[in-house]
C-alpha cells in the first residue's frame, strides 16, 4: 500500500457527477490510499496502526508531537489507484501494479474500518468515482508511506 498523508485544517471530497459532498472533516489528516496488486488486509492493518500513532499533529508549542487520536482529529481517506503509476517508459503512466478494483476496494475498506476501530472519526470518498478534493493544508505537512 502507498499513502500520501497531509495534515489539514479542513478537507472535503465531492463526487463530480452528482455534486454530492461525500466526505468532510475539520482538523486532521487527508489521506490518499493506493492499493497495489500484492497488498493484503494485513498491510492495511499495519498502516492504520501507524496512522493512529504517528506524531505529526501540532502540540501547543506548534511542534509535531501529537497523534491525530490525541488531538481528537479526523481522517478523510480517499482511494487513489494512481499512486501506483509507473512512468519509467514513455509519456503515459502505466497502472498495472495497482490492485484490481475489487481487491483494492476490499483492502481500502478494511483500512478505513481499522482506523474507525481505533476511535478515529473517518470520512471517505466514493470508491471508483471521479471526485474533486478541497483541502486546506496545515503547515504544510505531507508524509509519504
Topology:
Layout: E1 2-15, E2 21-25, E3 28-34, H1 41-53, E4 55-58, E5 64-67, E6 74-79, H2 101-117, E7 121-124, E8 131-144
Parallel strand pairs: 3-6, 6-7
Antiparallel strand pairs: 1-2, 1-3, 1-8, 4-5
Describe the structure.
With 145 residues, this protein is an alpha/beta fold. It has two helices and eight strands, in the order E-E-E-H-E-E-E-H-E-E. The chain has a single domain (2-144), classed as 3-Layer(bba) Sandwich (D-tyrosyl-trna(Tyr) Deacylase, Chain: A), CATH 3.50.80. The longest helix has 17 residues, at 101-117. The relative contact order is 0.31. The model has no long low-confidence stretch (mean pLDDT 97). The protein is globular, with a radius of gyration of 15 Å. Strands 1, 2, 3, 6, 7 and 8 form a six-stranded mixed β-sheet that branches. Homodimer. It catalyses: a D-aminoacyl-tRNA + H2O = a tRNA + a D-alpha-amino acid + H(+); glycyl-tRNA(Ala) + H2O = tRNA(Ala) + glycine + H(+). GO terms for molecular function: D-tyrosyl-tRNA(Tyr) deacylase activity; Gly-tRNA(Ala) deacylase activity; Ser(Gly)-tRNA(Ala) hydrolase activity; tRNA binding. Belongs to the DTD family. Keywords: Cytoplasm, Hydrolase, RNA-binding, tRNA-binding.
Amino acid at each position: 500500500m502507498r499513502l500520501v498523508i497531509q495534515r489539514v485544517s479542513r478537507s472535503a471530497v465531492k463526487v463530480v457527477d452528482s455534486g454530492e459532498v461525500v466526505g468532510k472533516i475539520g482538523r486532521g489528516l487527508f489521506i490518499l490510499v493506493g492499493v497495489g496488486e500484492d497488498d493484503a488486509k494485513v498491510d492495511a492493518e499495519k498502516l492504520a496502526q501507524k496512522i493512529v500513532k504517528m506524531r505529526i499533529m501540532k502540540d501547543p508549542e506548534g511542534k509535531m508531537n501529537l497523534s491525530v487520536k490525541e488531538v481528537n482529529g479526523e481522517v478523510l481517506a480517499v482511494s487513489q489507484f494512481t499512486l501506483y503509476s509507473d512512468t519509467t517508459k514513455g509519456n503515459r503512466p502505466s497502472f498495472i501494479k495497482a490492485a484490481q478494483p475489487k481487491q483494492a476496494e476490499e483492502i481500502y475498506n478494511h483500512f478505513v474500518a481499522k482506523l474507525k476501530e481505533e476511535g478515529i472519526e473517518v470520512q471517505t470518498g466514493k470508491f471508483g468515482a471521479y471526485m474533486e478534493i478541497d483541502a486546506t493544508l496545515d503547515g504544510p505537512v505531507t508524509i509519504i508511506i
